[in-house]
Amino acid sequence: MLTAQEIALRFLDTKLQVHPEVVRYILENDEPDLIERIIAGVPEDTVVVSAKHIPGIRPTRDGTRFLLDPTVEVVSGNPGTSGPVNGTGDYLHYFRDRFSRLGGMIRGRVGAMPIEGLTKNTRYRQEECTVIGMVVDVSTTKNGHRIAEIEDSSASISVLFRKDRPVFADAEKIVHDEVIGVKGKLSNDGRLFFAEFLYRPDIRIDNTPFKSDKPGKAVLISDVHVGSNTFLEEAWNRFADWLSDSDYQYLLIAGDLVDGIGIYPGQDQELTIKNIYEQYDAFGAMLSDLPSRMKIIISPGNHDVVRGAEPQPVIPEAFTKKFPQNCMQVENPAVVNLQGVRVMMYHGRSIDDMIGLIPGASYEHSGLMMEEMLIRRHLAPAYGRRTPIAAGRTDRMIIDPIPEILHTGHVHIKGITTYRGVLGVNAGTWQSQTAFQKQMNVNPTPALAVVVDLQTLMPETFSFA
């Protein structure tokens, strides 16, 4: 058996220094070819061989070691899930599925009757009742009240939310195509419903998130935008070095891996890489520099080379040939299970719509937008606006099951929130302020990574700017 001195000398023969932890590991594991396997796998610019260079071993911060065995399960959003839209018939199924599932969540908490049964039966006039419907239209009257037309499978009705009632604050945030329940009384002529309470699918107040029973940490980032002249390469390199010295098991990237081609007018003037294949090759090379022990989970965004309509399929294989083997691709949106902790990954394009529809909403408060998604149990409730939706036979934008973590991007501004046990994370971007953002007075928060401890669900933000 080799001595500690002989092990150190063997590394010195190849102009490498060796950490005592590595020497101790080699002494504990009497494997004849272990030293040579370690040396063969060390990058060329390495000076000191540390525990991170031992094949199959993950060093932890306190010096202990254990085998890397990251557990990842794709709950929804596996490659190939997003099929084509097969005609107008799918739209009917899509909205029926949305109404049935979200309406069922409300009905599970409050009793409700069909709208047609309410309007056609005069005995319900002036009696307090509850109905559930999808919002067809919503507007503000000349007197400042809020009025919404809702419909179920039987009929539709106009609902009035008076500005002098407590319910008005919730009514101001009603958006098109969300599913709501309203409790109140029907007018004498049966044409108007006076609302006193508003119900949404929401997350139960007693929701208890699952926490992993073993150590594990996930790094959350989004919006890398490789190929843009505002991509922060030096900051990324600091991030990559930091990951190499860490003990994290998972890296989740929520879309916009590259800047893309032809996404907006004049984009070619702001690109350092003007070939889409080369953009993804460069991104793949960046991922290859990260620790191979990590599981890297990738979903696309609106700048990536997939259809714009959500749900978006995975990036085609023709563009990912240089991605390392430890990468796992999922669709947008997707739910992945990390050691029992469910993470819903959604790039977040619908935030644009919600900001335009909800009073007081802004890009600076992306955390609040994630809360609004959770309240509605839907990632993109407003149909037919800036966020294109590929309507299939089921609505894959519904938030079901409830995740422990909602991971978004798109807005380039950090936002962290906790709503009824669900942690919402938007980690910002790896791109400095663009010319368009400057015109719009949008100030990004670049070069950030959010690390979530899977045992506590506590987030910690690290800056590489």
From TrEMBL:
Q: Which reaction does it catalyse?
A: Exonucleolytic cleavage in the 3'- to 5'-direction to yield nucleoside 5'-phosphates; DNA(n) + a 2'-deoxyribonucleoside 5'-triphosphate = DNA(n+1) + diphosphate
Give one GO biological process term: DNA catabolic process
Q: Name one Pfam family in it.
A: DNA_pol_E_B
Q: Which GO terms describe its cellular component?
A: DNA polymerase complex
Q: Which residues form the OB domain?
A: 130-189
Its domain of life reads Archaea
Cited SUPFAM superfamilies: Metallo-dependent phosphatases (SSF56300)
| Annotated ranges, domain DNA polymerase alpha/delta/epsilon subunit B | 219-409
- What InterPro entries does this protein's entry cite? DNA_pol_a/d/e_bsu, DNA_pol_delta/II_ssu, Metallo-depent_PP-like, NA-bd_OB_tRNA, Pol2_small_arc
What UniProt keywords are attached to this protein's entry?
DNA replication, DNA-binding, DNA-directed DNA polymerase, Exonuclease, Hydrolase, Multifunctional enzyme, Nuclease, Nucleotidyltransferase, Transferase
UniProt GO MF annotations: DNA binding; DNA-directed DNA polymerase activity; single-stranded DNA 3'-5' DNA exonuclease activity
**E.C. no:** 2.7.7.7, 3.1.11.1
The entry's function note states: Possesses two activities: a DNA synthesis (polymerase) and an exonucleolytic activity that degrades single-stranded DNA in the 3' to 5' direction. Has a template-primer preference which is characteristic of a replicative DNA polymerase.
Family note: Belongs to the DNA polymerase delta/II small subunit family.
HAMAP family, per the entry: DNApol_II_A_arch (MF_00325)
> What PANTHER family does the annotation carry?
DNA POLYMERASE DELTA SUBUNIT 2 (PTHR10416)
Its quaternary organisation is: Heterodimer of a large subunit and a small subunit.
Q: What is this protein called?
A: DNA polymerase II small subunit
| Encoding gene per record | polB
